[in-house]
Specification:
about 240 residues, alpha+beta, 4 strands, about 60% helix
Length: about 240
């Protein structure tokens, strides 16, 4: 079940997206996450500064002071990584700037953060994921049966970031559990690699629990639940 805090963060990201989106289908099918982030930076008068951090583990930094607001990103990181860092720092800006004025992101283990720091970092990650890959955009691309990697390339996010965004989308849209959502996401990714994505189970997902059980059985490469049920009925009919 989604917690109230998670729902509020997702709603906040959706509202931010709604503030600049265009209402025509082509916009959603060609959505560019970085271009959208640049609009938000400009709207909020946030200065973006690529910076050659000496420590590779530092991804970025948000600083708010009397001179304004600055987001610094590690220029040594890939473009997709930088894009996620910008979205993450915007998460701190929208969600946490009333608590603190400086945030520094690293690739270090969560074990090195305090519990409070871990929570706000996870909140910023959730906001970033929802902002970079809005549900409305993802849904329209899936309706058009985009290849997994086409979505990643079009939006401009890493395949790993897309994986967890789709996983969350499947889990909550279809009210399924963590494991099945992950299996359906991986099935989609693998079949996209094989150029067979149109047969991915994500395109037939439904809230129907019998169908979900069928999909689970098929992905596990077991005998289909429905086929097994049919065999039992045939056996009964013989007597």
């Amino acid at each position: 079940m989604m917690t109230m805090v998670r729902m509020e963060i997702i709603e906040k990201a959706m509202n931010v997206f709604d503030s600049f989106k265009y209402f025509h289908e082509q916009y959603f099918l060609t959505y560019d996450a970085l271009a959208s982030l640049e609009l938000l930076l400009d709207h909020n008068e946030i200065f973006l500064m690529p910076f050659n951090f000496e420590l590779q583990k530092i991804s970025g930094r948000l600083e708010i002071d009397e001179l304004g607001t600055t987001i610094a990103v590690n220029s040594n990181h890939s473009q997709n990584r930088q894009t996620f860092t910008i979205a993450h720092e915007l998460g701190h800006f929208y969600l946490h700037s009333h608590k603190r004025k400086t945030f520094t992101e690293t690739k270090l283990s969560e074990n090195l953060y305090s519990l409070g720091e871990v929570l706000i970092e996870r909140e910023a990650n959730l906001f970033a994921s929802e902002l970079l890959i809005p549900e409305e955009v993802l849904e329209k691309m899936l309706v058009k049966k985009f290849n997994y990697f086409r979505i990643s390339n079009t939006i401009g996010v890493s395949t790993e970031a897309l994986k967890w965004r789709i996983h969350r989308y499947v889990m909550f849209k279809y009210n399924t559990d963590y494991r099945l959502a992950l299996m359906v996401t991986e099935d989609y990714r693998i079949k996209s690699m094989e150029m067979n994505h149109s047969r991915a189970f994500i395109f037939i997902m439904d809230k129907n629990k019998y169908l979900q059980r069928e999909i689970f059985e098929e992905i596990m490469e077991r005998e289909s639940f429905f086929e097994n049920l049919l065999h039992k009925r045939e056996e009964v009919s013989l007597y």
